[in-house]
Design a protein that fits this description.
- This protein is mainly β and about 110 residues long.
- It is built from no helices and eleven strands.
- Strands 2, 4, 5, 6, 9, 10 and 11 form a seven-stranded mixed β-sheet that branches.
Length: about 110
């Protein structure tokens, strides 16, 4: 499985961005898909994931971010609203076929200016 993330950029605080992650392969619909982020000088952290029951979020983004998927397009999205400077990070998409996050995209940079 190959994952290609896109949609990052520079946005002012309070603005919105939508990240996309396109996946190769025919088993996309069976994977749990997720987004992680890594801010400068910090460890990578969980942001959100989506399975067949819905989305799950880190407390820091709950109510502001929405994760959703289009299985027909093999794509997962992260809609980010009310962005804050502390959301600045490289965002990575990932796929979890079973118990672990086995596949990772290359990352897309989101910068939120104050």
């Amino acid at each position: 499985v190959q994952l290609q993330a896109s949609g990052g950029g520079l946005v002012q605080a309070g603005g919105s961005l939508r990240l996309s992650c396109a996946a190769s392969g025919r088993t996309f619909s069976t994977y749990v898909m997720g987004w992680f982020r890594q801010a400068p000088g910090k460890e990578r952290e969980f942001v959100a994931e989506v399975d067949w029951n819905g989305g799950y979020y880190a407390n820091s983004v709950k109510g502001r971010f929405t994760i959703f998927r289009d299985n027909a397009k093999n794509t997962v999205y992260l809609q980010m609203n009310s962005l804050k400077p502390e959301d600045t990070a490289v965002y990575y998409c990932a796929a979890r076929p079973a118990a672990s996050w086995d596949y990772w995209g290359q990352g897309t940079l989101v910068t939120v200016s104050s």
